[in-house]
Amino acid sequence: MAVLGIPRNTIEVLQKYQFTFQKKFGQNFLIDTSVLEKIVSAAQVAKEDCVLEIGPGIGTMTQYLAERAREVVAVEIDRNLIPVLQDTLSGYDNVTLVNDDILKVDIRKLVEEKNGGRPIRVVANLPYYITTPIIMALLEGHVPLKSITVMVQKEVAERMQTGPGTKDYGALSLAVQYYAKPELVANVPPNCFIPRPNVGSAVIHLLRYEKPPVEVEDEKRMFSLIRASFNQRRKTLANGLSNAPELGVSRERVTAVLEELGLSPTVRGEALTLEQFAQLSNLL
Ligand code: SAM
Questions:
Q1: Helix (H, G, I), strand (E, B), or coil: what is residue 264?
Q2: Are 266 and 231 in contact (CB under 8 A)?
Q3: Which of 61, 100, 146, 229 measures 20 to 30 Å from 46, CA to CA?
Q4: What pLDDT is recorded for position 195?
């Protein structure tokens, strides 16, 4: 099978199978070999690695991954792509195709079966409509991970890396930075895809920490608190948190703890660092 990623070969495969793109699945296939090489090299895939690819499409990046990894598990929702993938990946015996919705797959079980529960690498050109739920499921679901290297919408890559005081800062920034060290790999323009997306894209590499950078007694509670803070972005923390019934804290209690932390009683969630959220959660 010819190498995909070269526009001519990709178009040939699409025509052979009379494939029609489904917008609802966020299908924008990569047709730029230099971007593909950048992604797999940033992912640092090595011969001992088991890689999970989310949304292989016609198998373009899967071929690159199969060349480098011990094993690739590719989860694709669109059943029309399965016969295409069986064809484009027929030369590899280290690829397992799973025709399913990644949000319904028990990824921890998959890691247990395929890699004896040892950490895997996730590499993907993600379907943009579900980027955040996928990243959250991987991180908060405590999937054994070495790293996540993904193509996402440019704004989302910015949200993952940014700190307090910017409009992009929010629950995603804090979740990513609690579990991993984010690093921007490349900005990718729309003409590297077929069809072209109407947003800019970026590749981001998240290196999973062995131990989170802050100490939290109850992780779940800290993330409920973070969510409540950003659900009501324009409210002060004291109002936002005391209005969230799941937290069960009074306005007075929040104000007292803020004072203990040397923070203003009118501070908003968007001004707090990860460390301050951790302290707030521990004290509350
Ligand atoms: N990896 C291919 C490439 O780079 O050319 C395709 C990337 S395309 C942006 C996203 C892929 O994810 C599509 O193949 C789409 O069908 C698939 N997809 C969308 N939603 C999915 C889901 N919930 N679970 C698994 N795959 C999904």
A1: coil
A2: no
A3: 100
A4: 97
Query: Quick one: which atom of ligand 1 is closest to the CA of 29?
Result: 5
β strands within the chain, DSSP E = 29-30, 50-54, 71-76, 95-99, 120-125, 145-153, 180-188, 193-194, 201-208
d(CA 98, CA 12): 24
CB 206 within 8 A of CB 182: yes
Amino acid in position 173: S
Per-residue pLDDT tens over the stretch 16-74: 999 999 999 999 999 999 999 999 999 999 999 999 999 999 999 999 999 999 999 99
Nearest CA to ligand 1 atom 5: 29
Task: Give the largest Cα separation in the chain, rounded.
Answer: 67
Residues in contact with 219: Cβ distance below 8 Å, sequence separation at least 6, in sequence order: none
The three-class DSSP label of residue 129 is helix
Task: Indicate whether residue 59 lines ligand 1 (CB < 6 A).
Answer: no
Residue nearest to atom 22 of ligand 1 (CA): 101
Rounded distance from Cα 11 to ligand 1 centre (Å)? 17
Query: Whole-prediction pTM value?
Result: 0.95
Query: Going by CA atoms, what residue is nearest to atom 8 of ligand 1?
Result: 27
Q: What is the pLDDT of residue 77?
A: 98
